[in-house]
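Hi, can you check this record?
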Amino acid sequence: MKSSRVEQIAAKALEQVNNDRYVLSNIIFKRVKQLNNGAKVLIDANPKVEKLADIAMREIAEGKLLLDRIDAENA
């Protein structure tokens, strides 16, 4: 991926998690683990060619993953 495209995807992914880069990092990490364990890719991407972290970030940016947040009050 080109640098400007990566930046656009990262910006969209950050918007999906209220601009919290730590939450985004954790979600990407968990999604990469799922993909490594055989989970289906939710976007048009080839996991044998693209990095799993890039695929996970694109899935988040495109809104393909449902993101549930746990509020501190409900924890």
The chain is about 55% helix and 0% strand. The chain has a mean pLDDT of 89. The helical segments are 3-16, 21-36, 52-61. Residues 3-61 form one domain.
